[in-house]
Structures are given as C-alpha cells and as structure tokens.
Amino acid sequence: MKIFNTIIPVLVIALITSCTRGEPMETGKKAPEQPTEKVVKTEEEWKKELTAEQYRVLRQKGTEAPNGKAYKQFKEQGPGTYYCVGCNAKLFHSDQKFDSKCGWPSFWDPAKLEGIKTIADTSHGMIRTEVVCATCEGHLGHLFSGEGFDTPKDQRFCINAVTLRFVPDEVEG
User: Fold this and answer.
1) Using CA atoms, how far apart are residues 46 and 32, in angstroms rounded to an integer?
2) What are phi and psi of 14, to 5 degrees?
3) Which element (helix H / strand E) includes 75?
C-alpha cells in the first residue's frame, strides 16, 4: 500500500505536466501554395523540416498528449483553414470543427475531401480508421463514427494539433 501512495502522486504529476507541455500549433500569415503532386522526402529531409514532435506524430504515427498547448490554441482560433505541416495541403476549415472534449482537435468533415485519405488501422489491438494526408501520407489522427455528436455527419476526425498549420480567414488569400 505504501508503494501506491508514492507512485500515484508521481503519476498524477507526470500526467498533468505532459498535458500542459507540448508544442504550439503553427500559424501561417498567408495561405500556402497547394502542392500539385505527391510529396516524397527522405527521412533525413523530414527530420530537418519538422520539429521532433511533428516528426514523431506525422512520420512515425505517434500521438501527442491530450490537452496540450496546440489544442488550447485550436479551441481559441476563429475562422480559418488548417493545412498539413508536412506539405501544406489543405485539410480542414474551421466551419467543420467542433469541441468533442477529447483533448485533440475534432472536425466533422474535411474541407477538401481529396486532401485526406483513410486507412484501416488494427494496431494496438483496436479496429480504427487512420487519417493521413493524401499528399505526403503523414499520419494526422483517426476517424471515429457513431459517437452521437450533434454535428451534420456522424463522424469525428480526431486530429493531432501539431500536424496542423492554421491560417486565419482574414489573411487567407
């Protein structure tokens, strides 16, 4: 029992710390030029262009901690468009975002359907649908259906915030 009294407070502190850490979401000053073909780079090129956390999530199919800095920014952002940090492909618009209270950005529909693709994901003993950028094939998150959210579609694109670059509508152009 004594060991649990020691371990539990340490785990709680570690969880709180991991949720408040993390990288901020990138914000662009103008809409990036859209890629016209698949983006293929070496792992070394990806490592040079992305932060360590972006690389871990986008290229190694990682997941950022919930409720991090980037997610807090996401919740406060107004109208705008979300692009892939790996290749600048348009992915989502704020018109389709909603607060699912899951700790990660949620969208009920992609802004440009051809900007993403979905893949069956049976890793970690679960059956899920992985969401990847159609242009650079970077891991963005997962798609869940049938959760009962009051949105126009019965689906939730649960996306890692560090994989997104936000451009506010007022600077879009």
Assistant:
1) 18
2) -65, -40
3) helix 69-76
pLDDT digits (tens, 9 = 90+) for 53-102: 999 999 999 999 999 998 899 999 999 999 999 999 999 999 999 999 99
What was the pLDDT predicted at 4? 39
Given 84, 87, 136, 158, which residue is catalytic?
158
The CA distance from 157 to 129, in Å, is 10
In sequence order, the 6+-apart residues with CB closer than 8 A to the CB of 99 are 75, 106
Could you confirm whether 158 is annotated as catalytic? yes
| Cα 41 to Cα 58: distance, rounded to the nearest angstrom | 13
pLDDT at residue number 126 = 84
Which tokens sit at 13?
């502190």
CB 75 within 8 Å of CB 99: yes
| Average pLDDT across the chain, whole number | 85
Tokens of 2: 């004594």
